[in-house]
Design goal:
Distance between the termini: 48 Å
Number of strands: 12
Number of helices: 15
Largest sheet: 7 strands, mixed
Strand order of the largest sheet: 6-5-4-7-8-12-11
Shape: globular
Bound molecules: S-adenosylmethionine
Helix content: 40-55%
Strand content: 15-25%
Structural class: alpha/beta
Length: about 300
């Protein structure tokens, strides 16, 4: 699937069914290309009738670069970055740290690696966006947020979570706060929406005022010490009764499943400073930071939701 996306196979079939020779690039071997397309059929990515190959409905929705629901950013990022990093899983297990230096020679702060080239940054953000578009409507629907007036999504990247929240709560004011490298390009995704953009560092800079903050796939990037620091800063910035909405995968209480969350937790070991956590682990960190009531909801989507209220 990674190679099919990287070779643009589903883009070549966007106009409709075609025979292998009609969509083969000149630098591709005819026999190898046909074998590759046949393998894509058996994987369920393509269908074949007579000589003609066509995108399966799922491939047409998710594996075509121009589709509004495209996941090609996440898949290219998985192919170019994660796949290489996972080749060093054994060393990650031995040393307990991510593999950026070993794989790519990159040694700076975490997100400097993701944003080291414009192309890598674009694929990463496009990837976050495609994946987020699947989960954010469910996260926005997980709790009644009607009492809140202003949401700031910290590390909000392309703004898919505020946009999903605006769909349900059109009167809310919303903003994304992210690193300058992201805010430079986030407008491409938020254009035409009512999502404001602020550049800054959530570990150091003042947080834009809000009565509801959100953190989507942020806490799983960091170890417990940095999570405590960030949650403490958020709690301090909130008025009493203010909220924090968290979108993360939740591990089971016994930490033994679900398997997709286990794999993502290893992915976090290899690519970040963080890990996936259970609801009880989040509740403990939130309690230490000064939050009172904490509620968790499984959404059935790739990300679950937690809402914490400041005492
Ligand atoms: C895993 S991505 C999640 C993006 C987005 N919340 C989503 O769910 O699609 C982590 C985000 O945190 C941002 N980030 C990392 N460190 C940050 C910092 N110190 N201050 C602000 N944003 C930061 C990154 O730029 C990136 O957009």
């Amino acid at each position: 699937m990674f190679a099919a996306v990287s070779l643009g196979v589903c883009d070549r079939l966007a106009a409709g069914p075609a025979a292998a020779h009609e969509i083969r690039n000149r630098d591709e071997d005819p026999d190898a290309f046909e074998r590759f397309l046949n393998a894509c059929v058996s994987l369920g990515l393509l269908n074949k009738e007579g000589d003609a190959y066509a995108n399966s409905p799922a491939a047409d929705a998710y594996l075509r670069r121009d589709s509004p629901r495209t996941l090609t950013g996440y898949i290219n990022y998985s192919n170019d970055v994660l796949w290489q990093i996972w080749a060093h899983l054994e060393d990650g297990v031995r040393e307990g740290t991510n593999r950026w230096k070993q794989t790519f020679g990159l040694d700076g702060p975490l997100f400097s690696a993701y944003y080291s080239t414009e192309e890598r940054k674009h694929e990463f953000l496009l990837g976050m966006h495609g994946y987020g578009m699947i989960s954010s409507p469910g996260v926005a629907a997980a709790f009644d947020l009607s009492r809140f007036k202003r949401l700031v999504d910290l590390g909000g990247a392309t703004g898919h979570l505020p946009m999903a929240i605006l769909e349900r709560y059109p009167a809310m004011e919303t903003a994304v706060f992210d690193l300058p490298a992201v805010i430079e390009v986030a407008g491409r995704f938020t254009r035409g929406s009512r999502v404001e953009l602020f550049a800054g560092d959530f570990f150091r800079d003042p947080l834009p005022p809000a009565d509801l903050y959100s953190l989507g796939r942020i806490l799983h990037d960091w170890g417990d010490d940095k999570v405590r620091r960030l949650l403490g800063r958020i709690c301090e910035a909130l008025p009493a009764g203010g909220g924090l909405l968290i979108a993360e995968r939740l591990l089971d209480d016994d930490l033994l499943g679900p398997v997709s969350t286990q794999m993502q937790s290893l992915n976090m070991l290899l690519a970040t400073e963080g890990r996936e956590r259970s609801f009880a682990q989040y509740a403990e960190l939130l309690g230490e930071a000064g939050f009172g009531e904490v509620e968790g909801k499984r959404t059935g989507l790739p990300l679950d939701a937690v809402l914490a209220l400041k005492k």
